[in-house]
Design brief:
Layout: H1 4-21, E1 32-34, H2 43-46, E2 54-55, E3 76-77, E4 81-83, E5 88-90, H3 93-98
Parallel strand pairs: 1-4
Antiparallel strand pairs: 2-3, 4-5
Length: about 100
């Protein structure tokens, strides 16, 4: 996963899948980047700034602060995890419990 083109494509795919899948009442959606080895060389340049991003939909296009959203608005992680055999970055308990390969 340490090629910059793979990191860029993975980030776009996470955004696309998340945007098309949230919100839904049909199923619970988790989005993650999966790879065999984590992005050791390029994590800081391509993923670190995104690891803590949360988002939601604003059909009005007017919201500038989270407090302007209705109280029941769901907030989503940009990604719920980066899952590799060598490192796990999880923002979701199910991801953390299911994919912690490193001990």
């Amino acid at each position: 996963m340490d090629r910059t083109d793979d990191l860029k494509k993975a980030t776009y795919q996470i955004l696309k899948i998340g945007a098309e899948g949230h919100p839904t009442t049909d199923y619970s959606l988790k989005v993650a980047i999966l790879s065999n080895i984590h992005a050791a060389r390029h994590f800081d340049n391509y993923l670190a700034a995104f690891k803590d991003i949360v988002w939601t939909r604003d059909p009005t296009g007017q919201v500038k602060l989270a407090k302007q959203l209705p109280p029941d608005t769901e907030i989503y992680n940009l990604f719920d995890g980066i899952i590799t055999l060598t490192h796990l970055l999880a923002r979701d308990d199910w991801i953390r419990n299911s994919f912690d390969f490193v001990e």
